[in-house]
Amino acid sequence: MTSPKFIDIHSHILYRVDDGSKSEKMSLKMLELAVKTNITHLVATPHANDLTQKEQSERFEKRFEHLQLMIEKNGLPLQLSLGSELFFGPGIETLLEAPWATFNNNRKYLLFELPLYEMPKEVEHFIFERHLEGITPILAHPERYTYLHKQLHKIVDWYHQGCLMQVNAGSIVGQFGERVASVGQRLLRAGLAQFVASDAHDPEYRTYLALPDAYEKMLTFLPEEMAGQLTYTNPLKAIRGQSIDAYEIDESQLLEDRWKSVAGFWTQIKKRFVR
Ligand SMILES: [Fe+2]
To answer: What's the gap in Å between 19 CA and the centre of ligand 1?
Structure first.
């Protein structure tokens, strides 16, 4: 089997700007690993949160340009785009005008994250406002927010409002525990996620290698065509600012296996007794 190519829309490859790459040397290692993993295009998505737009712009753009030079100098067959992972906090609106707020400054797609441990308010309002501006927000790793595990209907609502979902490759293969793996896989089965990305932070632990591992895992429960869309075609469209086809949503896939069997039992009972 020829190994598939990947396009990764979530990566902390810029050095010394967040909790991702710690040095120029580490970023080069990560770039080389991305090439080995068959990644053809990466979007650098540093965390954008507490600094002013001007301070972040200076650092992001400087590091991004330097990494592009490194790619050229080392003859790496890899394209690099600039974006960010906008933190959903009080300052998010002020960051939206920055060129790195959307992928390649395309003003069509942005990546944002929620606080990890507390459900924020006004997510719906944020999605609505972006739509008025013609921007589609992509929620990073919805499966990792534990407060959403018991209310997956929130993700369904946000999806219907026009927010797309990006599941982490590492989540699918169990890097964040069984519960996160189960939620991530259920979101994919339900057709609620449009992207699977690495969210790579370093060359050893949270790496690009999660992508081929997740791809292999996805082939056990999704059609091959869909696995390719999640890891290549949809990311390419988002970078280019093109529209992305929706999957048919099957909310029954969101149920945990134990409840699926209960739901199946009830269907059988109803078939026998309700005429
Ligand atoms: Fe991230």
So the answer is: 9
Question: From ligand 1's centre to the CA of 266, what distance in Å?
Answer: 41
What is the CATH architecture assignment of 6-273? Alpha-Beta Barrel (3.20)
Q: What is the pLDDT of residues 52-108, one digit of tens each?
A: 667 778 889 999 999 999 999 999 999 999 999 999 998 898 889 899 999 999 999
CA of 28 to the centre of ligand 1 (A): 19
Query: What residues does each domain of the chain span?
Result: 6-273
pTM above 0.85, yes or no: yes
Cα of 262 vs centre of ligand 1, distance in Å, is 36
* CA distances in angstroms from 65 to 7, 18, 80, 152, 245, listed in the order given: 20, 17, 10, 39, 32
The whole-angstrom separation of Cα 233 and Cα 215 is 14
